Amino acid sequence: MKALGWVIAVLVVIAAAILITNARSVPSSEQTNVTTVVPSGTPVSHPQSVSTSTSPSPAATKPAITKLSPESGKAGTTIVITGAGFDPASNMILFGTGNGRTHPDGSPDNRIADTASKDGTTLTFTVPSSGPSGILCDAKNNCIAIAALLLQPGTYPVQVTNGNGTSNTVEFTLTK
Which of 49, 73, 161, 169 is a plausible cystine mate for 23, CB 3.0–4.6 Å? Predict the structure, then answer.
């Protein structure tokens, strides 16, 4: 029976050593003591790390545009959108009004670019020279072929949409 007691004592010490080793590999925000009692009745204290921080992951940020640079220009001008909440992989840039029409894939007819943002704060696009073209559909899914029309000088809304939502609208002035 004494031999069984020693076997249990050895197993308890091994288990405590494993707990200590595992606890050292986990980042901790506070230390506690774990006490193991071996069959001989001698308590052995082992420090163990316990993580108590429960930081929630940050909520996804809806895209927001703070400025366009430049704010006006001719068709073909390269524009830098500055803001926040841009997706590192997929952002849809909208230029002009959608008029409720969509492409067969469901994207709005005023989509001019699908682009990534390396830093989450900037996107780049080129001002188009014409409006949407190809097959466009209305809200009732009636589809027709549309020929692109040359965009006229004036003010056009710009927005960014991604998996976190749609940004505010900033205006770009198209010049001759």
Answer: 49
Contacts of 172 (CB under 8 A, 6+ apart): 68, 71, 72, 73, 79, 95, 127, 155, 156, 157, 158
From CA 38, how far away is CA 87, in angstroms rounded? 56
- Residue 28 in contact with residue 20, Cβ under 8 Å? no
User: In whole angstroms, what is the distance from residue 146 CA to residue 166 CA?
Assistant: 26
Q: How many domains does the chain have?
A: 2
According to DSSP, the residues that pair with 125 across neighbouring strands are: 79
- Residue 163 backbone dihedrals phi, psi, to 5 degrees: -60, -15
For residue 22, give the H/E element and its range. helix 2-24
pTM for the model: 0.65
The three-state secondary structure class of 142 is coil
116 within a domain of the structure (yes/no): yes
The reply to whether 127 and 90 lie within a common domain is yes
CA distance 168 to 176: 26
Q: What is the pLDDT of residue 7?
A: 42
